[in-house]
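Sharing a chain and its predicted structure for anyone who wants a worked example. Both blocks are below, sequence first, tokens second.
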Amino acid sequence: MRPRLLPDQVRRALLLAGIGAGLAGTVAAQSPADATKSPRLNFPRDFASHPQSRNEWWYITGHGSSGTGSRSRDYGFQITFFRSRVEPTQQMASRFAARQLLFAHAAITDIQGKRFWHDQRIARAGFGIAQASEADTSVVLRDWSLERSNGMYVARIAAQDFAMQLSFSETQPLVLQGVNGLSRKGPEPQQASFYYSKPQLAFDGVIHIQGQRLPLVGAGGASANADFRPGDGAAWLDHEWSDSFMHPLAVGWDWIGMNLFDGSALTAFRLRDKSGAPLWDGGSYRHPGRVGAAASTFERGGTIFQALRFWKSSLTQATYPVEWLVRTPGGDYRARAVLDDQELDSRGSTGAVYWEGLCDLFDGTQRRVGRGYLEMTGYAKPLVL
């Protein structure tokens, strides 16, 4: 079934409220994100929604294999729930006012089959249709949901051509990105977000593709060692929120979140201006032998993205780099798409067109050392927040 969308006039109001590209904004805890302040994230409260903040998202990506022997196939998956506060409606008395909007994107990549499926949802919060809990992670949008209970996350997605029912469990402590969970995104102190990650998640469940049921399991960091294979699988969760995210000159960003086969975790990002020059960059690296310690945070100027290969979308005519040389204080790597066509056209929900897909990660000797997701925004058109 196709997602039901809001009327055009409501969608225009949302765009004016600054959520038209909702996948870029992120939101703050009890007060706006500000790099001059020392944050103090409080869990499990900060696993939950922050409705006073402008934009927020929960994001899970992963990869694993289904089947055995010659019938084994590798799949990637992406699930993202967004929440956006609509400022013009906050003082309206009507219970029908769209004070909070929820929307979601989901996708599956079939590596051997060279296929990519994606879908989207959008609805106003309330009326038993959509909600984001303030007690813990519980985001529901019709028959799509992501919920946390007893330390585990459960995602349920029922899309037009595919479905997912997956459970995720931690194998490592979470990573507080930036300084104690405050991640700088620009030269102004207010250009920041509250941001934490849960890398190396184990998972199990099933995916359905065009009526075919496929069990999918990932061991995550529980089995990370020199013999780890890409098919052994791992997942990654991000939760981020902010009132002010992008510099006025920024048109988009490039980001990677990589689970390395040795159990380490790599995050790297940059925000670009219209010429492609970096406005801000950052990231983190956590060594496999130090999973109980804080991740090493990359200072501005320490992360460099260099495009090596490009792909042009026949649907949108946008051109994306699908292979990168990424230089970081944690090492130099190549991120290479497992499938070039992993573009998401979300003009039916957030209004954005972006590329988000599964990639392999290689070290300086061209040895494959990890697998994770690459996200690129602002290539089809500049993001507007």
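Comments welcome. Confidence is low (pLDDT under 50) at residues 1-30.
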